[in-house]
Specification:
Blueprint: H1 11-18, H2 25-35, H3 39-47, E1 54-59, H4 70-83, E2 90-96, H5 104-111, E3 116-123, H6 132-147, E4 159-169, E5 187-195, H7 199-202, E6 213-219, H8 224-234, E7 240-244, E8 264-265, E9 271-275, H9 278-284, E10 287-288, E11 294-298, H10 314-326, E12 332-336, H11 342-350, E13 357-361, H12 370-379, H13 383-386, E14 392-397, E15 400-405, H14 409-416, H15 418-436, H16 439-457
């Protein structure tokens, strides 16, 4: 029987096959390359609107306004691309590698399109005091609302991502009046360097009703505790909350707001991710999250003092209070560089019998190495009983990830003798490093790779 040529497949099968390729790679050039292979592939790709609903553009040229043609040409490219998408919703990702100026023509074009479903904007430069281009886009969207009978310009927008890790914002420079721009937003993800203004001014005119995902990364002031609680009271459909505010041990504790009834009860939040700080721990002690099953806590500040603090268990106490009040079952627990003290780490790890996935990072200081923690596990009488449902364990040290999963031999050793498991992992890593420094071993590995390639060719 003669082999079937790929072009003999029905168009829908061929289109489904194309969908597994990375069509968005290199500014979506991969899709155009596929369409250039032959006439048949070209016709199949252009006949299926789903291939043309998403466009990712990495912009390395400074956008210049008229009389330069670069902006009109870029708009024409957008129009040609999305004209093939039919009636499907659109997704656009613009990544700027140079600081863009305000572009009224491009802003007006983006604002006039009500079919955006997802918009992502990235500024990949350091040291920006703000993002002028984004400010211009938001201003155009506000003007559209005012001049079009108060109709939102992006009524179908579900996801908005703003990524500008080098941008620092002061007062009156960063505002997202999304109630009048995108009232049905479901996911909002923001990454900036820092915000010196009140975070409440950013979301002063914001519709929280439909929001299911909220992520914010960047240095914030002392209002974080009040904002966290405000967020839970307003976004009743929130399922995932991630706020990495770069606060640390010495951040002053904010007073609890008197106008919010405590504890704040939120029935739908499932995933919570925070930077450890006195405000974050206070937040955990004053919320009730019965649906929570995934919790991440990370430390932003790495202490340089060689003197350990007095024995205490602040993280354990706060997480215990959260679980006790919420009656939630945490199945995934991730701790990065926290807690500082071994006893606190041991307690927070072993006090949640529902944990199935446990991910830990190396200590944030030199007060105690990982051996002390694994020894505490090994000498404990019933640590296996404390985590009866554990199926995967991960410990990150530097650039190395050490993991054990149920069904593997290493997992059984971890459950029986955690310290022996850790020492075996360290020894294995040392042997591997020694091999890399041995020229004969490197040549042997190279020969084995060549033999494998030869067998594959045969």
């Amino acid at each position: 029987m003669a082999p079937t040529h790929i072009n003999d497949f029905p168009p829908e099968i061929l289109a489904h096959t194309f969908s597994f390729s990375d069509c968005q790679k290199d500014n979506c050039k991969r899709l155009l390359q596929l369409a250039s292979v032959c006439r048949h592939w070209h016709d199949v790709l252009f006949a299926y609107p789903g291939f043309w609903t998403t466009l990712e553009c990495s912009i390395s040229t400074k956008l210049k306004n008229e009389p330069h043609l670069i902006v009109p040409q870029f708009i024409a490219h957008l129009e040609r691309w999305f004209s093939r998408a039919g009636d499907l919703p659109w997704t656009l990702a613009l990544s700027f590698n140079v600081a863009p100026r305000k572009t009224p023509l491009l802003n007006d074009h983006l604002v006039r399109i009500p079919r955006w479903k997802n918009l992502m904007f990235a500024l990949n430069i350091e040291g920006a005091s703000n993002w002028i281009w984004l400010e211009g886009l938001i201003a155009s969207a506000k003007e559209s609302f005012a001049t079009n009978n108060e109709c939102p310009c992006w009524p179908k927008l579900e996801t908005l991502e703003i990524y500008a890790p080098g941008a620092r914002y002061g007062p009156d420079r960063f505002a997202l009046p999304l109630r009048s721009i995108a009232p049905n937003l479901r996911q909002l993800k923001i990454t900036i360097n820092g915000l010196t203004a009140s975070i409440f001014t950013v979301f002063e005119d914001f519709s929280w009703a439909n929001l299911t995902v909220f992520e914010f990364a960047g240095a914030l002031g002392s209002e974080t505790l009040r904002f966290y609680l405000h967020l839970l009271t307003q976004a009743q459909n929130l399922e995932s909350m991630k706020v990495l505010d770069q606060q640390h041990d010495f951040t002053p504790v904010s007073p609890l707001p008197f106008h919010i009834r405590l504890p704040v009860v939120h029935h739908k939040l499932q995933h919570l991710s925070l930077h450890e700080s006195p405000n974050a721990l206070t937040f955990l002690r004053n919320v009730c999250l019965p649906s929570l099953h995934s919790f991440d806590l990370a430390r932003f500040y790495l202490p340089d003092s060689i003197t350990p603090p007095p024995p205490s268990t602040p993280v354990t106490d706060a997480v215990k209070a959260l679980v006790l009040m919420s009656r939630c079952k945490i199945r995934t627990l991730r701790l990065r560089w926290t807690p500082l003290l071994v006893q606190d780490l041991f307690n927070v790890v072993t006090c949640h019998p529902t944990v199935e996935v446990l991910e830990l990072d190396e200590p944030a200081c030199a007060w105690s190495g990982p051996e002390v923690f694994f020894n505490a596990l090994e000498t404990a009488e019933n640590w296996r009983d404390d985590l009866p449902k554990l199926t995967r364990f991960t410990y990150i040290r530097g650039f190395r990830t050490h993991s054990a999963q149920v069904g593997e031999e290493g997992f059984d050793l971890l459950r029986r003798a955690p310290l022996r498991w850790w020492k075996s992992r360290v020894e294995m890593q040392k042997e591997f490093q020694d091999e890399l420094q041995d020229p004969d071993a490197l040549q042997s590995l190279a020969n084995m790779a060549l033999e494998d390639e030869s067998e594959d060719d045969d």
